[in-house]
């Protein structure tokens, strides 16, 4: 059970295994006291052992929960505000706290100006994850403008350097892990293109002496899909801290008289090892982040038409694909790009969300009825935030795209971005999607977003720089409105693959498209990086016709990779041989048996394809009675992979039955985890799905 203990201006947030401690010092400053393993709650106290000289000040030295720009504070701070009379500094003093169950709110007011700042903390039972966010309120009669408004500042206890994991990706190469030691100075992970993006993740993992099972691991993930910044630093006092939140790049937020603003949330935790970190985040997202009511419903096996027919979709070829998809066991048929307006390639049509009558003479209903009659739900691709200059929408409303009157609006993928901060644009998009859902039996949208923002003139706004925040908010709002009006509809977040796959997106969307790279070998690495702080269920993974960019992988191999997420199929099934269709059918049937364990179970990353040449990922259900392990090898070298395979996450005292390399074993959990099963792993395409079942 979690609880919050408040005593003499010391606040202890107690989670399952950790303490997060905040204090208020003699001068009314918020202080970060401690974060880590539990100690005696009565022992925590504020450290007054500080000194200053003319260049390095006490304010710079102390550890705070949230620092504001002003006075003698010189390091990167969490908040910077400008008041109407020209004062650019904030001076906060503590005014009191509120506790509501497991939520703690610490209140601060400026000593002169009408600004209050509330630091919010929420603990959950059973996990070591704390939600943090900040609320600012303008209690006066004139506007306050913010240049920086981060969600949280986090400080780590050790004075030794921490290593930081993040991802450094791109289109087709999402979630590639990076690992950097921060000895001094600062390190920033960020996005500036209007979405959380492919490059860095809006999160951090700071660790010392850690691997999957041991070591100190501090982590946090920001729930925001727009421009973010994660700024880590190690100062001259050897203190390592991180600020996370809305990027201060081209940022301004105007808080009018009487208004308040909640920053995006940060979910942070401290665990022993990376494995526990991922398992806790996985559970947390399922219980507390995913949109309800489908948070605990397994995702269906989908078919997506993109790699089969690209823009060349029509009633005939989609019906033919649907027949094959139903035959192999698909539950949801999604038609991708190309079905609307003048969309024959990526030059035209975006914005005209009306069915193309040449491709679908009888509208969408003919295809949808066919799909439904085959026992599948129907889903549709859309890219609502975009417009092609060659479209009726752009011809009618050229001013609806972001632009500056005297600058050329850059096209990327031949398209412009709609000014989502305009109410008329929001209504146009909502109404079109609403009509599609009202007039057709559509159960699923794949909501795509295929370019970064540029020339972001937004003349409609009093403060144009607020567009970055308001664009993201408009997307979330439309998704929420559609779902409220059409219960039963789920929506996938896609951004040229995994460019919008953050936990902010997952508060509204139900899942994300992970990467357009469906190569079996590359995917193992992409999925590993993805699994660090993102939930398994949200990770859509298709088996397509791509046999291998690097080297051919069998269909079974590609299934064994894709079945480690939410399985989909994306190849041109009409060209598959009967034998291949049987392989699809067999794997999809198996996936349906194990998907509850994969999508909701605990993941143990036992062997890493990059480090070990072999991948062994094991998923275990809640009562440890059933588990599934995926063992794959990317062609091992030197014939050396003769080794015992040890499992993880099992109950030591239970006995399990498993078949591996055609031999059946009955062993205790303790044996399987400590002694293991001796194997010889070789060949270029080694793949095995191992089911472990408790013998009752
Ligand atoms: C990018 C997505 O990642 C693809 O899956 C596909 O939907 C295309 N866009 C369609 O244009």
Helix and strand layout, with pairings?
Blueprint: E1 3-7, E2 10-14, E3 18-24, E4 30-37, H1 58-61, E5 79-82, E6 92-100, E7 103-110, E8 115-123, E9 129-138, E10 144-155, E11 162-167, E12 177-182, E13 185-190, E14 203-208, E15 216-222, E16 228-234, E17 240-246, E18 253-255, E19 260-262, E20 266-272, H2 274-289, E21 302-304, H3 306-309, H4 315-328, E22 332-335, H5 365-373, E23 377-382, E24 386-387, H6 392-396, E25 416-417, H7 423-439, E26 444-447, H8 467-485, E27 490-493, E28 511-513, H9 520-531, E29 539-543, H10 555-562, E30 566-569, H11 578-600, E31 602-607, H12 609-612, E32 614-620, E33 626-633, E34 642-645, E35 655-660, E36 663-668, H13 669-674, E37 677-680, E38 687-694
Parallel strand pairs: 21-22, 21-30, 22-23, 23-26, 26-27, 27-28, 28-29, 29-30
Antiparallel strand pairs: 1-2, 2-3, 3-4, 5-10, 6-7, 7-8, 8-9, 9-19, 9-20, 10-17, 10-18, 11-12, 11-14, 13-16, 14-15, 15-20, 16-17, 24-25, 31-32, 32-33, 33-38, 34-37, 35-36, 35-38
Helix pairs in contact: 4-5, 7-8, 9-10, 10-11
The protein binds (2R,3S,4R,5S)-2-(hydroxymethyl)piperidine-3,4,5-triol.
Which tags fit this structure?
696 residues, alpha+beta, Beta-galactosidase, Chain A, domain 5, TIM Barrel, Immunoglobulin-like, 8-stranded parallel barrel, 13 helices, binds (2R,3S,4R,5S)-2-(hydroxymethyl)piperidine-3,4,5-triol
Helix content: 10-25%
Tally of DSSP β-strands: 38
Fraction of residues in β-strands? 25-35%
CATH superfamily of the largest domain: alpha-galactosidase from lactobacil brevis
Spatial gap, N to C terminus: 31 Å
Radius of gyration: 26 Å
CATH class category label of the largest domain: Mainly Beta
Number of structural domains = 3
Structural class by SSE content: alpha+beta
Bound molecules: (2R,3S,4R,5S)-2-(hydroxymethyl)piperidine-3,4,5-triol
Task: State the low-pLDDT regions, or none.
Answer: none
Question: If classified by CATH, what would the architecture of the largest domain be?
Answer: Distorted Sandwich
Q: Give the CA-based shape.
A: globular
Report the major sheet: 10 strands, antiparallel
CATH topology tier name of the largest domain: Beta-galactosidase, Chain A, domain 5
What is the count of helical runs?
13
């Amino acid at each position: 059970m979690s609880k919050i203990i408040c005593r003499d201006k010391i606040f202890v947030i107690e989670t399952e295994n950790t303490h997060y401690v905040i204090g208020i010092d003699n001068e009314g400053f918020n202080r970060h006291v401690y974060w880590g393993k539990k100690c005696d709650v009565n022992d925590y106290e504020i450290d007054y052992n500080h000194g200053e000289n003319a260049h390095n000040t006490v304010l710079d030295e102390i550890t705070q929960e949230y620092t504001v720009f002003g006075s003698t504070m010189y390091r990167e701070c969490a908040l910077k505000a400008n008041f109407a009379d020209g004062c650019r500094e904030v001076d906060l003093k503590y005014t009191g706290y509120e506790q509501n169950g497991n939520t703690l709110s610490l209140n601060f007011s400026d000593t002169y100006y009408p600004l209050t700042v509330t630091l919010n903390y929420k603990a959950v039972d059973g996990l070591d994850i704390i939600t943090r966010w900040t609320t600012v309120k303008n209690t006066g009669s004139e506007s306050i403008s913010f240049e920086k408004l981060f969600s949280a500042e986090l400080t780590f206890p050790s004075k030794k350097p921490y290593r930081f994991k993040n991802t450094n990706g791109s289109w087709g190469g999402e979630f590639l892990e990076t690992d950097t030691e921060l000895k001094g100075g600062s390190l920033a992970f960020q996005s500036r293109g209007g979405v959380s993006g492919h490059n860095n993740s809006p999160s951090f993992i700071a660790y010392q002496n850690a691997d999957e099972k041991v070591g100190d691991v501090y982590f946090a993930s920001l729930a925001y899909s727009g421009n973010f910044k994660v700024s880590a630093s190690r100062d001259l006092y050897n203190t390592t801290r991180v600020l996370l939140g809305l990027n201060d790049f081209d940022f301004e937020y105007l808080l009018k008289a009487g208004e308040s603003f909640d920053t995006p949330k940060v979910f942070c935790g401290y665990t022993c090892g990376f494995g526990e970190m991922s398992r806790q985040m996985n559970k947390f997202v399922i219980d507390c982040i995913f949109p309800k009511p489908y948070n605990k419903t397994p995702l269906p096996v989908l078919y997506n038409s993109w790699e089969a027919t690209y823009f060349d979709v029509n009633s005939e070829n989609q019906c033919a694909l649907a027949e094959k998809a139903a035959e192999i066991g698909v539950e949801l048929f999604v038609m991708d790009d190309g079905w609307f307006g003048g969309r024959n390639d990526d030059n035209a049509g975006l914005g005209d969300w009306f069915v193309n009558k040449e491709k679908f003479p009888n509208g969408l209903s003919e295809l949808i009825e066919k799909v439904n009659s085959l026992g599948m739900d129907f889903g549709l691709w859309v890219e609502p935030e975009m417009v092609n200059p060659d479209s009726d929408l752009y011809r009618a409303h050229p001013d609806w795209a972001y632009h500056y009157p005297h600058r050329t609006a850059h096209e990327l993928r031949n398209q412009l971005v709609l000014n989502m901060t305009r109410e008329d644009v929001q209504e146009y998009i909502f109404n079109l999607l609403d009509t599609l859902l009202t007039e057709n039996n559509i159960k699923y949208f794949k909501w795509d977003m295929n370019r970064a923002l540029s020339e972001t003139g937004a003349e409609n706004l009093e403060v144009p720089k607020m567009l970055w925040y308001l664009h993201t908010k408009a997307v979330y709002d439309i998704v929420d409105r559609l779902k409220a009006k059409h219960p039963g509809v789920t929506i996938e977040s896609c951004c040229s693959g995994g460019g919008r796959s953050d936990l902010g997106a997952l508060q509204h969307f139900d899942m994300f498209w992970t990467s357009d790279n469906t190569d079996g070998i590359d995917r193992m690495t992409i999925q590993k990086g993805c699994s660090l702080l993102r939930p398994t269920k949200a990770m859509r993974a298709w088996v397509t016709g791509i046999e291998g960019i690097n080297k051919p992988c069998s269909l079974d191999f590609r299934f064994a990779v894709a079945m480690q997420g939410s399985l989909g199929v994306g190849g041109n099934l009409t060209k598959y041989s009967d034998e291949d269709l049987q392989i699809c059918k067999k794997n999809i049937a198996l996936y349906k048996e194990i998907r509850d364990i994969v999508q909701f179970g605990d993941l143990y990353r036992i062997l890493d394809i990059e480090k070990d040449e072999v991948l062994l990922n094991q998923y275990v259900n809640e009562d440890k009675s059933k588990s599934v392990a995926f063992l794959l090898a990317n062609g091992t070298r030197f014939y050396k992979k003769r080794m015992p395979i040890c499992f993880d996450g099992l109950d030591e005292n239970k006995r399990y039955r498993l078949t591996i390399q055609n031999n059946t074993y009955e062993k205790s959990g303790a044996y399987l985890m400590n002694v293991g099963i001796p194997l010889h792993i070789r060949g270029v395409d080694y793949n095995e799905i191992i089911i472990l079942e408790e013998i009752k």
